[in-house]
């Protein structure tokens, strides 16, 4: 699971999974769905911060892990915002109905977050930065390869993998390096010929160490992950949702 602060926790495909017409509506009404995802995250961030402040010695938002209820809260808030803009554009009752529907479901998702508690990481590992990947001596099969890295903490917990970067190999291999924050104690390399099917290639590497991809690409390792699981669940006080 990613950290809340890693970036937008839902994407356009998540929205489409709940509303197949969302992109058509956004196109007709000229609504920037990507921007709404960012704005929805900002709104949820404000409400999460308020919840955390009500907990005695509560952790900062940078330690909040994205749990399924939290992801749903963000998704439904973004859908509500899209249909709210669509309604203001056309004053169409159909849009108003969808806006109100998603507002209520967002309230339900918020309630689930409160009921289940916030997922908290004791030693949060942020999503890894895009690695430095360069050609190196070797005999890897020619072609395009997608490479990502993930950082680990002292307990071996792995944060979300970086956004993949692509390198074209011809008569060579490639070397990978990464620069990580102080709490990162190790890192791993994932690679594949498809950015959505990258598998583990290395063991845990030390900070500052470089990795050179062997001539054979491993396809049996685990897939690149989305981040660490919560260390514990933090009970939060119930609040009355806006609207």
Topology (elements, then pairings):
Elements: H1 12-18, H2 22-29, H3 33-53, E1 64-65, H4 68-90, H5 93-116, E2 118-120, E3 132-136, E4 143-152, E5 165-169, E6 173-177, E7 186-192, E8 199-200, E9 211-212, E10 232-234
Antiparallel strand pairs: 1-2, 2-10, 3-6, 4-5, 4-7, 6-9, 7-8
Short description:
With 243 residues, this protein is of the alpha+beta class. The chain is 34% helix and 18% strand.
Q: Spans of 5+ residues with little confidence (pLDDT < 50)?
A: none
**Beta-strand share of residues:** 15-25%
What average pLDDT do the residues reach? 94
Q: What structural class is derived from the secondary structure elements?
A: alpha+beta
Helix content: 25-40%
User: Termini distance?
Assistant: 29 Å
- Annotation, overall tally of beta strands: 10
Overview features:
10 strands; three-stranded antiparallel β-sheet; 243 residues; 2 domains; 5 helices; 34% helix; alpha+beta; four-stranded antiparallel β-sheet
Overview of the molecule:
With 243 residues, the protein is of the alpha+beta class. The chain has 2 domains: 4-123, no CATH class; 132-212, no CATH class. The protein contains 5 helices and 10 strands. Helix 3 crosses helix 4 and helix 4 runs antiparallel to helix 5 (93-116). It is flat. It starts with 11 loop residues before the first helix and ends in a 9-residue tail after the last strand.
């Amino acid at each position: 699971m990613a950290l809340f602060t890693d970036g937008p926790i839902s994407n356009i495909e998540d929205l489409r999974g709940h509303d197949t017409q969302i992109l058509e509506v956004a196109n007709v009404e000229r609504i920037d769905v990507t921007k709404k995802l960012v704005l929805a995250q900002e709104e949820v961030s404000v409400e999460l911060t308020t919840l955390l402040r009500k907990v005695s010695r509560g952790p900062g938002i940078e330690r909040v892990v994205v749990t399924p209820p939290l992801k749903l809260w963000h998704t439904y808030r973004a859908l509500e915002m899209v249909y709210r803009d669509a309604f203001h554009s056309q004053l169409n009752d159909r849009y108003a109905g969808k806006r109100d529907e998603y507002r209520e479901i967002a309230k339900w998702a918020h309630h689930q977050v409160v009921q289940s508690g916030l997922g908290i990481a004791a030693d949060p590992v942020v999503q890894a930065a895009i690695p430095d990947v360069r050609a190196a001596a070797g005999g890897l099969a020619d072609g395009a390869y997608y490479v990502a890295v993930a950082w680990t903490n002292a307990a071996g917990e792995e944060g979300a993998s970086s956004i993949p970067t692509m390198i074209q190999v011809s008569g060579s291999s490639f070397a990978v390096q990464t620069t990580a924050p102080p709490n990162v104690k190790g890192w791993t390399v994932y690679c594949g010929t498809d950015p959505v099917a990258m598998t583990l290639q290395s063991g845990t590497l030390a900070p500052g160490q470089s990795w050179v991809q062997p001539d054979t690409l491993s396809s049996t390792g685990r897939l690149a992950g989305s981040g660490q699981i919560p260390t514990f669940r933090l009970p939060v006080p119930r609040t009355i949702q806006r609207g």
